[in-house]
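in:
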């Protein structure tokens, strides 16, 4: 398939809530949206790099640079045989996985559209709807945390994840567990603890959490393995898993028993599929993480989450939670904690050009 034109947009969309984590706060979703055009079809990829390098090393700025200077020149005007063909062409670019994923996911959409299949089917998805949970940012008080959980349990989400940081972590989890004895509950520390402060993590063990996500440093698998030995609750890794190689090492070391897969963090659907294979061999359950995606990224997430190994509810909650107005139609919405998997060609949702124009800050076109 010959990619004729690439359109790279910087987009900003206000969030409907302040999302606070142990590493910062997001109020505006700022991201790059890539459109690849070929024979009258458009494939869309959303880059999940954030404004600042606090969750991951990449930013909107660095991803824009790597896309413009190194990745888009590999595809614009080129005959690309498959998404895997792009992966091999881009293999000499190290790291920069979020930038790579923007191209790879746009190509996946484009190839699926060209063959008239849904992206879910093209990836090997087997579910017609995915179970979804919700990730709740750190609220000002313990009481606010419980109220926020009540609201989202009422909306039918199948799992509640609380963002935590050292401080009132144990108090919050205890209060939520007392108010909701039987919900599926998890926590995500975004690497805010160390082995020296891990007593606070161990203090969460009695609350029947489904898993504890990324408690320790993003580069430290050995410490996670050591912590795991002192916990009954499984550890789930997010930031530490950038590839199938990382997944294999982490599982072999006993650093995790669950994996959060984010397409952007691992460089695209191809790598997500390889992690899926590694995890299946080891009997490790997966779930699909979130990066506060707009409609394109959300649809890409729903497609991968329809694979059989994604057996736990993910963070892909309803679009209307995040945005007044999304850039795709129909918006991706969950009912009773179930989100239908689009069946139309590619990502199965259409980009709303009028909305996209309104939220576009800058636009750069690349032609052969
Ligand atoms: O998409 O609802 C969402 C956010 C899910 O908690 C979420 N993401 O570490 O898993 C994580 C965080 C990373 C992004 S924080 C802006
Ligand atoms: Mg996480």
């Amino acid at each position: 398939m010959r990619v004729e034109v690439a359109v790279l947009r910087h987009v900003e969309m206000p969030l409907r809530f302040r999302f606070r984590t142990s590493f910062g706060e997001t109020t505006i979703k700022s991201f790059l949206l890539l459109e690849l055009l070929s024979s009258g079809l458009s494939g869309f990829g959303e880059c999940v790099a954030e404004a600042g390098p606090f969750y991951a090393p990449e930013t909107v700025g660095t991803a824009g640079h790597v896309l413009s200077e190194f990745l888009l020149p590999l595809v614009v005007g080129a005959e690309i045989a498959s998404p895997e063909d792009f992966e091999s062409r881009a293999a000499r670019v190290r790291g920069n996985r979020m930038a790579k994923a923007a191209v790879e996911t746009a190509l996946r959409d484009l190839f699926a559209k060209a063959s008239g299949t849904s992206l879910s089917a093209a990836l090997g998805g087997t579910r017609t709807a995915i179970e979804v949970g919700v990730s709740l940012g750190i609220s000002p008080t313990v009481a606010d945390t419980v109220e926020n959980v009540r609201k989202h349990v009422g909306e039918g989400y199948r799992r509640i994840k609380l963002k935590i940081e050292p401080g009132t972590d144990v108090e919050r989890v205890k209060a939520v567990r007392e108010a909701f004895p039987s919900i599926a509950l998890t926590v995500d520390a975004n690497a805010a603890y160390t082995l020296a402060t891990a007593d606070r993590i161990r203090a969460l063990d009695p609350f029947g959490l489904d898993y504890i996500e990324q408690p320790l440093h993003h580069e430290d698998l050995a410490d996670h393995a050591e912590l795991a030995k002192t916990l009954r609750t499984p550890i789930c890794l997010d930031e530490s898993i950038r590839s199938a190689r990382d997944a294999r090492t982490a599982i072999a070391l006993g650093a995790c028993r669950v994996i959060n897969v984010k397409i952007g963090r691992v460089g695209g659907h191809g790598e997500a599929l390889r992690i899926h294979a590694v995890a299946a061999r080891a009997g490790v359950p997966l779930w699909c993480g979130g990066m506060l995606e707009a409609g394109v990224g959300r649809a890409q997430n729903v497609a991968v989450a329809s694979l059989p190994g994604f057996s736990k509810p993910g963070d892909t909650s309803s679009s209307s939670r995040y945005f007044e107005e999304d850039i795709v139609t129909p918006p991706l919405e969950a009912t009773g904690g179930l989100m239908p998997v689009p069946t139309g060609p590619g990502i199965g949702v259409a980009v709303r050009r009028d909305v996209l124009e309104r939220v576009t800050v800058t636009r750069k076109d690349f032609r052969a």
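note: The mean pLDDT is 98.
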